Amino acid sequence: MYKYTFDNLIIYRSVYEFIDSNMYVILEQDRAIIIDPHQDDEVEKLLEQNNIKAVDVLLTHEHPDHISGLPWLAKKFDTKIICHENCAKIIADKKSTRPILITFVLEEKDRLDGTNLLEKFNESYSPFSIKATQTFNDVFEYKTGEYCFKIFPIPGHSKASCCIILDDKFAFSGDSLMLDNPTITRFPGGNTKDFKNITIPYFKSLNTEMTIFPGHGEIFKLKDKMEKGQLNVAIK
Fold first, then answer.
1. 3-class state of residue 148 by DSSP
2. Structure confidence at residue 198 (pLDDT)
3. H/E element holding 127?
4. N or C: which end of the chain has fewer CB within 10 A?
């Protein structure tokens, strides 16, 4: 688990051992805000040590590697789930939470590396159905005791992809913008035209000093993705 300190704000990052997706955790008195959860014993220990009773979950999009921890949190804590309407439809449908792509990726990795990640993953993950607490389909503002999150729909990587902005300084971009990885728009629900016409202009409108917390990989400054005033992002 990684820890980032910005003045009075601390953000923790946990990397999912199976598919390298990022979960982010912010503590607030007896509450935690968690973005894109996966199950992690170290994070659970962190929450217990800080006497966390309630968790607010914000989702950047609906893909299994970014929602897999929902049942775990709902079982352990008083959990609210805030997400796009299209994401809410996915997490409420057990068939839609089947990790088909992850299964293919881990099967190939095990074949090449001689590991048993797929077996371990199948032991820890089962398709589920869970109801969102709060949904939206336009720009949405979510306030906790200390923080105000603004959530912007940015379709392209998926129908429900969003960017979560905190204090106009930090952006949780999901899989729509990463430092070293291309943005994939060929998955079901992806749309290259939407990504080019909506999402790229959205990111270009942000302050280039903003710190980006991506769905995969290391955090970075938006200016690190800019080249001659253009957003330098590969689309796959």
1. strand
2. 96
3. none
4. C
- What would the two tokens of residue 233 be? 């992002």
Q: Determine the angle formed by the axes of helices 100-113 and 117-124, rounding to 10 degrees.
A: 150
pLDDT confidence band for 229 (50 / 70 / 90): confident
Place of tokens 């005791």: 145
The span from the CA of 215 to the CA of 18, in Å, is 14
Find all residues with CB under 8 Å of 224, minimum gap 6, and list them: 179
Cα within 13 Å of Cα(124), Cβ side: 21
Q: Which amino acid is at 76?
A: K
CB contact set of 86 (below 8 Å; sequence gap of 6+): 62, 137, 158, 159, 160, 189
Enter the tokens of residue 227.
């080249």
Q: Are 14 and 25 in contact (CB under 8 A)?
A: yes
- Name residues whose C-beta falls within 8 Å of residue 158's C-beta, 6 or more positions apart in sequence: 61, 62, 63, 86, 175, 187, 189, 190
How confident is the model over 166-214, as pLDDT tens digits? 999 999 999 999 999 999 999 889 999 999 999 999 999 999 999 999 9
Mean pLDDT, residues 108-120: 90
How many whole angstroms separate alpha carbon 146 and alpha carbon 132?
A: 22
Assigned superfamily of 2-97+127-231:
Ribonuclease Z/Hydroxyacylglutathione hydrolase-like (3.60.15.10)
pLDDT (average), residues 41-66: 95
